[in-house]
Write a structure and sequence with these properties.
Blueprint lengths: L9 H23 L22 E3 L5 E3 L2 E3 L19
Antiparallel strand pairs: 1-2, 2-3
Length: about 90
């Protein structure tokens, strides 16, 4: 007697067909029934500053903090070393 290790997919197909019928009927009922849904809540202004700071060193030697161009003299002391590493191009 050999063991049969085949997967029986018939119940899965039955469930998928039932779901298909339910979704098709729900689309038809959506047109017939008038559903009153409350409007979305107004967004609250929870604008918290991101703790991440992005410092960009561009090819021309200029700096940008979070996408805003910043001159080198405006950077706080100690935030950027004055030593630049030459790229190996």
């Amino acid at each position: 007697m050999a063991l049969n290790a085949d997967i029986n997919v018939t119940p899965m197909i039955d469930v998928l067909l039932v779901l298909l019928i339910v979704f098709m009927l729900s689309m038809q009922l959506r047109q017939v029934l008038d559903v009153n849904v409350p409007p979305p809540a107004k967004p609250t202004s929870h604008t918290t500053a991101s703790p991440q700071v992005v410092l960009e060193l561009k090819a021309d030697g200029s700096y940008a903090i979070n996408g805003t161009a910043t001159p080198y003299s405006a950077l706080p002391s100690g935030s950027v070393t004055s030593r630049r590493v030459a790229s190996a191009t």
